Amino acid sequence: MDPKHSVLVVWDVQNALVNGIFNKDHFIGSLKKLLSEARSHKVPVIYTKITPLPFEFESGYRLYSSMKRYGISDPKKISFMKPGSPEAEIYAEVAPVEGDTVINKNTADIFVGTNVELMLHNARIDTVIFTGIATEFGVESSARSAGNRGFYPVVVEDCVSSSSEEMHSAALKVMRTQVIVAKSDEIIQAWK
């Protein structure tokens, strides 16, 4: 986890998601500390933001998935993370600072539809450290995708969360068999 070859990803830490997680205070406290340490060790920070496609360009599957997840029967009533809305903004206590990168994306994989892989290769980064929401959705799928692309994926156990503690725990259990799962203090110690 050499800081010169690592990146810290802050996955979808947007108001609507942060306000619905089971461990908000602990999650925010751990993430703030990790962000501070990352910046002091010059580890680049990439934030992601859910940025839905316009309705007419959204896939049928993603509409179905959103309808199922939010209990909506009419896909035109989906208003989740509307760009510019307060719910879509990054949570203020852990907001980006000058020098951080913000990636707008519309899938649960940091590499699909973005230039993140190219960016990481250009910066000679081989370790991708994941934090954010939701553990069982974008964090898990992006960590797997990072590994499939030859990166070392690391999931920070106390800096990921979900609206469901059960799903969060299940995802961490599965990921422990495939990626590096570590606590923020272990990451910070490795940087020193």
From TrEMBL:
Entry-linked InterPro entries: Isochorismatase-like_dom, Isochorismatase-like_hydrls, Isochorismatase-like_sf
Domain named Isochorismatase-like: residues: 6-179
Pfam assignment, any one: Isochorismatase
Family annotation (CDD domains): cysteine_hydrolases
UniProt superkingdom: Archaea
Gene Ontology MF terms in the entry: hydrolase activity
Keyword Cell cycle: no
Keyword entries, A-Z: Hydrolase
Presence of the UniProt keyword Hydrolase in the record: yes
Name under which the protein is recorded: N-carbamoylsarcosine amidase related protein
